[in-house]
Amino acid sequence: MICKKITELSGSESDQLLSRGKGLTDVGSAVDAILENVQKNGDQAILAYAKQFDKAELSTLEVTPDEVEEAIASLDSNLLKHLRQAAENIRRFHAAQLPKEIWYIEDTPGIVLGQKTIPLERVGCYVPGGRASYPSTVLMTALPAKVAGVSEVIVCTPPRADGTVHPLTLAACKIAGADKVFKTGGAQAIAGMAYGTKSIPSVDKIVGPGNVFVTYAKMKIRDYAEIDFPAGPSEVLIIADDFANPKMTAADILAQAEHDPNSVSILVTPSEKLAKAVLEEIEKQSETAQRKEIIEASLKNSAVLIAENMQECIDFSNKFGPEHLQIMTDPEVEDTVLNQIQNAGSVFIGNYAPVPAGDYASGTNHVLPTSGYVRMYSGLNTAHFLKSFTIQRISKEGLSEIKDAVIDLAETEGLFEHAEAIRKRFEE
Ligand code: NAD
């Protein structure tokens, strides 16, 4: 773990922190071969990859309704209650994001302009399942799609070695209203949803996070399906001052680090005292962590950075563009910091707003752009499942208001029939 003043970071240390996620190109040729094989051989290729990568011997890919019911029956009722509580919060927050279905303005008399928003028809949700199970990701992807009104929502998730899917993932699919669930993960799942196979329908859009294989595959199939954005190994950047609690801060760093060896956690603080206390806590808490190996690998990409002042913390954060940004400062300065945030996927404010709250149950979405892509993408939200078209109704009186402008501009562009299409409407 790097621990030093921001001003003392070497060029290579700074590059390493800012250019995370660039490992994607390392998997390029492996993923290209998988995409090509699935496009050519469909289900057969996918079943073979399930055996190769997930150690699962499958004869079919689709989860049956009986499997879903058996999975739900096997779950503890309290766990199901908590899943429903999380689902309800996610449903309400995403319903609040729905735009007006249709709206019109009439600024020029006789020219009525409008916009209608409609849901996509078929969406594919990728739910990771390699190093951990992610029933929460079903709620974060399939549920907003259904809230938006998507008619067919399919879910792909890697099978476990015994050929089953985690029962809570299947319960989440049922609660979210997913229409079909397929046992496939990695690049082959993305290929299946993009190209379509005998069992997996091709979709209009693929959403959801995943490891480097999944993320690279999503970037490569965009001629076939739209994607949300690159959502790879998780990251957190914490801006904190002496108001923050070192134990909580260290716990938040480890919570992010346990996702993936490529995950990145950064604390930026003007307080040397906090930096030292957090480092001690990280060492203490990681001793007993269950996913110690992943955490140790991830901490190698991570850093505790000391800034001259709060402004330097904010500037570094904006340059880094974290997936998750925690602000644990004196409440007096929280808004000053927030108002200057330019690049962040989701912002968590205060000592009692840790990232896991948003990962599971507060209601916001946990599928967020990583690797600095927050510069140009927003985290997953209801709008990702919608598209819109514009509408115009124009009367003769309305057209006459813009007639001269259209004719003049069209003829200047050399598009004379455009001008004629207007003129003809005013000939007797
Ligand atoms: P995963 O489902 O993304 O990947 C598992 C699949 O990877 C396997 O089924 C296999 O097909 C494929 N694979 C593994 N090794 C391979 C190889 N050598 N060659 C080809 N394919 C291979 O699950 P995961 O690995 O646990 O990763 C989940 C990721 O999702 C983590 O990085 C986590 O941080 C991230 N995540 C991100 C967000 C976000 O919004 N950004 C949210 C949740 C999780």
Automatic annotation (TrEMBL):
Pathway: Amino-acid biosynthesis; L-histidine biosynthesis; L-histidine from 5-phospho-alpha-D-ribose 1-diphosphate: step 9/9. NAD(+) binds at residues 126, 188, 211. Keywords: Amino-acid biosynthesis, Histidine biosynthesis, Metal-binding, NAD, Oxidoreductase, Zinc. The active site is at residues 323-324. Catalyzes the sequential NAD-dependent oxidations of L-histidinol to L-histidinaldehyde and then to L-histidine. Zn(2+) binds at residues 256, 259, 359, 418. Belongs to the histidinol dehydrogenase family. This is Histidinol dehydrogenase. Substrate binds at residues 234, 256, 259, 324, 359, 413, 418. The keyword Metal-binding applies. It catalyses: L-histidinol + 2 NAD(+) + H2O = L-histidine + 2 NADH + 3 H(+). HAMAP family: HisD. One of its GO terms (molecular function) is histidinol dehydrogenase activity. Its EC number is 1.1.1.23. Its cofactor is Zn(2+). Binds 1 zinc ion per subunit. It is an enzyme of class 1 (oxidoreductase). It comes from the Archaea.
